Amino acid sequence: MLNEKAKNRVLKNIDKPLPEDDKKMFNFPRRFILGAVRLFINIFYPMEFENLDNLPDDGAAIVAGNHGSNLDAPFLMFAINERKRWGYFVAKESLMRYPLLSNILLKFRVIPVNTSEVEAYSVKAIFNVLKQDKVLAIFPQGTRCKTEEKLAKVAPKTGAISFALRTKTPIIPIAIDSEYKLFKKSRIIFGEPYYIQTDKKRLSEAEMMAESIILMEKIFALMGKEYPLADKEKLTDGILSDLN
After folding, report:
1. 107 phi and psi, to 5 degrees?
2. CA 92 to CA 243: how far, in whole Å?
3. Which of 155, 196, 219, 228 would bridge with 173, disulfide CB 3.0–4.6 Å?
4. What is the arrangement of strands in the sheet containing 87-92, beginning at the earlier edge strand?
């Protein structure tokens, strides 16, 4: 949980209106910071974008990627920027504890989320992004998972699925295929948009988890890999195989 001062800082910024045109997000201070970060990444961690056309020029979208490093957020932001769009990122609320970092993230319209109990202001901000036809960027794993051991243990969160269902927004799986090594090229691969297919008004926890696992499987498939999460059937009460 955030202390009162940090929470007030978040509440003061999170309700600010979003610009109708994404171009207005590319003002000088943000462009300067993005330019400096991109110069660093272009030199030390070069990027290659694939299938960018899978992100539409307009309309709401949830872009969901795998998460193995702190580099993933700038990788994904620059990929979205290539389409002249702005990515509104969901990030762990704990990052807002640090005043300088918090102020920068809030200027970039990052939405803090408590992964154990989502606050009402976070839900409102996410709905606001999608209702205004913006791009929401999220890492379903909820934490960095780089090793095979951690990938096998950490089940994805269901937030992306929940918001996609409640707002009827397409999900775009994005694979960040990287070893995160100096001068080694990273591939950011956009998959095809898809909607969660269901006739139900509400899915069970097992069904939500199954859809989250299917999303992660789509992401890993873009890299030609199998999603190595253990106990998939147990986590989904045995319904995953029926949905796949």
Report:
1. -65, -30
2. 30
3. 219
4. 47-50, 186-190, 171-177, 61-65, 135-138, 87-92, 111-113
Q: What is the dihedral of CA 3, 7, 62, 173, to 10 degrees?
A: -20
**pLDDT tens-digit readout, 211-232:** 999 999 999 999 999 999 999 9
Domain 23-242, CATH:
3.40.1130.10
Task: Supply the DSSP symbol for 50.
Answer: E
Alpha helices in 66-199, H assignment, sequence order: 72-81, 99-107, 120-131, 148-153, 159-167
Summarize the confidence of residues 65-83 as an average pLDDT. 97
How far apart CA 171 and CA 134 sit, in angstroms, is: 13
The single residue listed with the structure tokens 């195989």 is 241
Residue 225 confidence (pLDDT): 97
Least Cα distance to 145 among 80, 65, 224 occurs for: 65
Mean pLDDT of the chain: 94
- 104 φ, ψ to 5°? -65, -50
- The tokens of 234 are what? 């147990």
pLDDT band at residue 136, thresholds of 50, 70 and 90?
A: very high
Domain boundaries, the chain: 23-242
The reported pTM is 0.94
Question: Cα angle vertex 57, ends 224, 37, to 5°?
Answer: 70
